[in-house]
Prior knowledge:
The structure holds two protein chains of two kinds. Chain A is an all-alpha fold. Chain A contains three helices and no strands.
Amino acid sequence: MNILLLLIPISLAMGAVGVAAFLWSLRTDQYQDLSGDAERVLHAADHPITPRRRPTQNLQESGQ
Amino acid sequence: MISTFTSGERQGALIIAGAVMLFGLIMAVAGHADPMGVHGWIVLLFGGATAYAVLRAVYDPAPQEDRALSYYDDPTKVGLVISLFWAVVAMGMGVWVAAQLAWPDLRFDAAWSSFGRIRPVHTSGVIFGFGGNALIATSYHVMQRTSRARLAGQISPWFVLLGFNLFCLLAATGYLMGVTQSKEYAEPEWYADILLVIVWVVYFILYIRTLARRNEPHIYVANWYYLAFILVVAILHIVNNLAVPASLTGAKSYSAFAGVQDAMTQWWYGHNAVAFFLTAGFLGMLYYFLPKRAERPIYSYRLSILSFWGIVFFYIWAGSHHLHYTALPQWVQTLGMTFSVMLLVPSWASAGNALMTLNGAWHKVRDDATLRFMMVAAVFYGLSTFEGSFMAVRAVNSLSHYTDWTVGHVHAGAMGWVALITFGSIYAVVPLLWKRATMYSWKLVEWHFWLALAGTVVYVFAMWNSGITQGLMWRTYTESGTLAYSFTDTLVAMHPYYVARAFGGALFLAGAILAAFNVYMTIRRAPAKQPERDYPTSSEATEPAVPVAE
């Protein structure tokens, strides 16, 4: 069953990617406001927020 | 559609279409003595048609407005229409295949119409053509809405959508010519597989780039499901399709693995295709469109995230339950069985979460067939995941495996869960995308709902009966220890169920045709949505007394 020497490491590696993604989501405060997150998709207007008002961009600009 | 492209993007699209045509020409010339040559012509024509569509509008004025101010919905719209086209074609094929089992003469003695060739047209057509296009289209919709940002690219969404459909086209036409690598749900040969890898990598990059430009700090849970679908399917597809072409001028290839090793790879792929193509992606749909339609937040958002991580970590180990009582080592079978039973937890968490979201809004479910599609989809998701965990238990599997029970289980999932959530999402999103007040006919939606539900129930009950009858007949011994029934005896016993199955499938197909008609008429005829006005509707005047600033 040499195939298991391929499939098990691949499956474990995919699991490791999953763990990394989960830890990333914890570190970037993805789960701080769960009820708000669930509500906001219901009320968003049907157009993008204009890039000028992007919070991350503002942070970058103030950092420079 | 091309009018939203800048001139540079139009050139880019033409270059890609030209490259596709060139590849098609090379395939047509190199493989002229092989079905690969026919595929070459198909690729050439596909690239040519794309180039023609771009060229027709190449001198249109360049877009003036700031594109970042609106969502990019053209690829979504086209994807939904193509998805419905595949639904009608592939479900029609399914009814034909089912009818062939009941009345074998319906093959009409042609090579291309034999069961082994048109059955994969049905399965691939439904899973990839109908389901895949719906997933791509709705993922474009959901990733933009939940990120509050436009798709990160003008050409790449089209590249993904059209490239994926070229793959579907190569798959379906290949099966009819006898081109297959004999791996269930992974039948297309090596060049189609390479095409899909390229398309899928672009899809993943597009998704990540769109999320990276999001204006909303939180990544909504539906995106996680869609992302898992894209990423895991890519890896599964690559590993399972590792093969050596017999020649670069022909379609035939040989798998890199042999015997039970190949079987293990195939079902590691096959079951995770069910997990990440037919489950994770459609859960993404459920978690966005069900709350939207019900106008209620998901019952427990925390639970939706927990069940996502549960599915991610459990599903990948479950595939070996397809190989109970084979040459596969016992411990690998037990591992697959154990994880399959554990999967019940995240699966029922999702199904229960969806139903609890509707708790308190049952009047909406009663009045709105679209929401009812989603509700029944969640019920079937719960039912078929329970059945799946149950059937993965080795003792149950000894009765159910290789019988029609498996076919019934797959269709409870595919018709009851995947197709119903897709139709519900399509009915929810089509009026929004085409800016219509409602669908063209709510009565047709009602009809579709009951046809689909009746078709599914008839189909699944027929297959339960047939499968258990078949399984029991196979394991019945006479007193002298010989088999009590011949194989032909079991076929005679199954005939009425096969007729019922074809009938159930026909009901389901009729519903899908109504859906395609209804969507077409919505695009063509339904009245446009009036902009919402911020003044009392009881006012006699047609205009507000004080003009409202837009």
